User: Fold these one by one.
Assistant:
Number 1:
Amino acid sequence: MNGYPDVQKTIRAIADKSRMEILTALIDGKFHTVSELAKKAKIKSHTATYHLKILCELNWVSFYRQGRNVYYHLCSEDVANLLEHLLNINPIKNKPSLNQNREYQNLKLGRSCYEHLAGKIGISFFNYL
């Protein structure tokens, strides 16, 4: 390895609200189209494409084409783990709408991320074992 890791580039990548929304949507380990990610981040499709290009350059996100659609997903479990840790240590902000709050509560309750069960259900299951 030549040189040092560019931590500032990583911080700049996650400092943007739209990119963080896209990464949070991708944490489920599934493939998503640009329009799905744009809708979740509440941005236009061409803006989502711009953010996804930056994330692809960092090798955090990869894609494949199938016909007219392009599907994106996180490249590695390390990126998902980084995002999970960041979400756990950050202060909680209030959700302005009932639907967003319901979505957050469902995500907090239980989700699968790559090859493990996370959230309260995952913790309860682990403690039970």
Number 2:
Amino acid sequence: MLLNSKGKHRRPSKAVRFATLAGITGAAVAVPLMGATNASAASVETWDAVAQCESGGNWSINTGNGYYGGLQFSQSSWAAAGGTQYASRADLASKDQQIATAEKLLDLQGPGAWACAGAGGLTNDGVDPGVNTGSGQSESKPERKAEQPTTRSEQRTAPAAPKAESKKTVTTPTGEKVQKGDGEYKVKAGDTLSKIAQKEDVKGGWSKLFKLNDDIVKDADLIFPGQQLHLK
């Protein structure tokens, strides 16, 4: 569980207050104002322990609570300690850049700037973390937008729609497809050409009916429900 203290990173030294009043936001000016001769320092392992307590060790975290990155910098502390030379916010900077900035904040405010200083064993132990911040301004990572939950319907892959049966064919009981036709009489179960010719009074009987529909009826003894026959 992350520990967020309202007081962390909010006890600026006189130099930081002076820099703020003067309208100075970068630590490139704020830090020299300290005039300190003995810089504070802590090992990478110590900073990792603090980050584990502050943010669960997530160096890119931004929960929207006003504190950013693995060491949970407030924006004012990040700027006062010179972090903006790397990225606009701590969560957009690399781990090494965050540690380098934390070293300056440690020099400015001491271990009490972090609520998790005790849990992480943070002291001015004088150990140089030896981090590599890269040369100059680093490329800022794009801000990560809050992920929008997907609906169940979006999560499921829609099954492929079955191919529509051609409107020009009908399926026989054996699964074979035969031509449907476009005549005025629709064949029903139990129909034969003879029955249809007699019922519909087709002149020439079943043979005439067969000839009228020889494009879809290949065998006079085989017609199928759904076929549509011409009667004249």
Number 3:
Amino acid sequence: MFIMNIDGEVVRSFYCGDAVQDVAVSKDGIWCSCFDEGVFDEGISTEGLVLFDNTGSPAFQYHSHLPEAPSIADCYAICRGKNTTLWLYPYTDFELIQVNPEKNSFIVHQTPETLHGSQAISIKGEYSYFYSPYNKGGTLYSWKAGESSAKK
């Protein structure tokens, strides 16, 4: 991972693991998620999701800090939430998970099968948006947690 200044100069670099899927940057640091080749390999990638501080040191490691949370075999999508939270959508069960690294806590939402395999997520208020689920390439869905179906 390279951190650059406004002029495009590299000011810092660090190793964030193998098979990085998504990156989300916040004031708290840099979130990196991994797909299966990293999760089932060795090193930091096996965490599935890591928050690195701005110096490149791991500040939060999903599997280590949340041993009771659903396992990540492949992280399909992530997006920032409010404050320090992050949302993730991991394979195999495709549960929408909100992670709070400050409290080492998580909340799990069961999603309708229609949304499984989505390549991107976004959260706004009580609605979640899922892009391009399995066999529905290019389709955008909205879903309210707790509802049994999603809307195109």
Number 4:
Amino acid sequence: MFYTDNKLQYPVRVETPDPTFARALQQAIGGVEGEIRVAMQYFFQACGARGNPKFRDLLMNTATEELGHIEMLATAVALNLEGAPLKLREEVSADSVGGSVINGVNMKNLLSSGLSAMPVDSDGVPFDMSHIYASGNIAADMTANVAAESTGRVLAVRLYNMTNDPGMKDMLSYLIARDTMHQNQWLAALEELGGASNVFPIPNSFPQADEKQEFSYAFLGFQLDGSDPVSGRWSEGQSIDGKDQFSTAVMRPLGEKPNLGPAKPNSGAQSEQI
């Protein structure tokens, strides 16, 4: 069950409404880096979490928090849109380009939601859940969550730097702080699972004896001239999981040219393919 007390998680105030910034804030709601993405990602990860129930609780609590972030941002969008034009005709007559941009306002916010937030990105594209990663493997999911919070924090920092409104900066500084915590909590969960030496390679339930181990820790170079690949921490020394040593190799073709054979009769192929 979910509960609400009808109060915002953190204060949201806008001193100077800015419809253009409202459009930018939509990216934090419905963009691939946004709050809908992480809320749904953590929610479905929680619903499918098996094993120790504390990981389910961790995920579900954070998913619930992210729903509150959506509410905060939606409120911020609506408050910033208070200065948007209500009549398209007025804006068109004042704009030599025909008001096609409407001073940066997302047309959907104007035409479809009555100057309110929507589950779309800054271009008005609806979030379609294609970036929800819930694998059923707790370590894989925690690793994906670190990336999700990292890109979300990058976005929040960019938004922070886009505005001079004190209220918006205050709200975004809170969201940035929560992104900091979330990055750390997912890393802490990976540590709780045993750290790099136990977690990786994911899934750790698959016996490495059954993989082609000569390729397990080799950084492969594909330069046409056959030169050695660039070296780095990923190409020498102990592997991050502590199970072997990194190495480098110039990759050569190990297989043959593919030959699929003729097409089957009545398959819709050309007669020359059969």
